[in-house]
Design a protein that fits this description.
By secondary structure, the protein is an all-alpha fold. It has helices at 3-24, 31-69. It is rod-shaped and about 110 Å long.
Length: 78
């Protein structure tokens, strides 16, 4: 082998090693960003749950009002 061939093999090996290290590199730590995103998602879920609860409460009240004012007749007598 000539020195040119050895140099080429060395350069190719270094390039493969650099690509391997870059591919296995741990990504930057985004813990704070992830926590903020999770908190925001939790707040949105809580707002949706509160809205659903309010809607259910309104529906229950409407049903109670409707049944309280329904006339007693042959079709709904006990």
């Amino acid at each position: 082998m000539t020195s040119g061939t050895l140099r080429t093999i060395l350069i190719v090996g270094a390039a493969v090693a650099a690509v391997s290290v870059a591919a296995c590199k741990k990504p930057a730590d985004n813990t704070a960003d992830n926590a903020n995103t999770a908190a925001s998602d939790a707040n949105a879920a809580m707002a949706s749950a509160n809205s659903a609860d309010n809607s259910a409460m309104a529906a229950g009240n409407a049903a109670a009002n409707a049944s309280a004012t329904a006339p007693m007749n042959a079709t709904n007598a006990p």
